[in-house]
Structures are given as C-alpha cells and as structure tokens.
Amino acid sequence: MPVRVLIVDDHPAFRRALAAALKLVATVEVVGEAGGGLAATTQAEALGPDVVLMDLSMPDLDGIAAMRRIHERRPGLPVVILTAHADPGIEKEARAAGASGFLAKGLPLEELVAVLHSAAEGATSSVP
Predict the structure, then answer these.
(1) Which member of 16, 36, 50, 108 lies 3.0 to 4.6 Å from 120 by CB, making a disulfide possible if both were Cys?
(2) Contact 120, 3 (CB under 8 A)
(3) Of 80, 86, 81, which Cα lies nearest the Cα of 128?
(4) Is the dihedral of CA 125, 15, 25, 1 positive or negative?
(5) Is 102 left (phi over 0), alpha (psi -120 to 50) or beta?
(6) pTM for this structure?
(7) What phi and psi values does residue 38 have, to the nearest 5 degrees?
C-alpha cells in the first residue's frame, strides 16, 4: 500500500514539480497539496495523509507552527520538513517541535521517498 503524502510549500512551481515527481513513484500517493501552513492544518485533517512533507518558510504560518497545530489534532501524524534552510540549529528546533524527518531541498528523489516511508513507519531521519 502506498504512503499517502500531503505536500506543503508556498512556491507553486516547486510544489507542482515535487508532486509530479512523487506521482511517478509507485509506493507514494500524493493525496493533496497546500500552499501555506494554515491550509496545511486544514488539509492534514481533511485528507488523512500518512505523512506531511512541509516547507519551513511560508508567509502565513511557518512550518514549525503549522506542525504544532497539526499535532494538536493528529498527534501521531509524521511531519517531514523539506527546506532550503537546512542547518543544525533549525533542524534541532524542528525536531524539538516534533518533526519526524528533516531534509534539504535538492536531494535525490530516492532519498526523499526513503525518508517518507521511514517516517510513515515511525522512524526519524535526516539528510543534509
């Protein structure tokens, strides 16, 4: 059964490209997309994904605040952070807030898919 993923990123072109790439992977099902943290909180509840793949920097509600809101409603839902601002301090903050994974944008698709599966299975991981 494929891992059901909600993609959250405020850059529409990046979000669409990521969704298109993940849709080519048989073991992943993209169940929805959100353009910001507020929409992510609503979509995470409405769509019932197995994993949320979320950017950190968004104008309405940043990824960490959105993750906290999601975890208020669905405490066990894994959230994997995918960011251009991958540094140890930000990763530590994201992990403390409950992130199941922390990834740098630009990593190979195979690595991203592996982390999504690990998060869905309850593991934590990061790839700089």
Answers:
(1) 50
(2) yes
(3) 86
(4) positive
(5) beta
(6) 0.93
(7) -65, -45
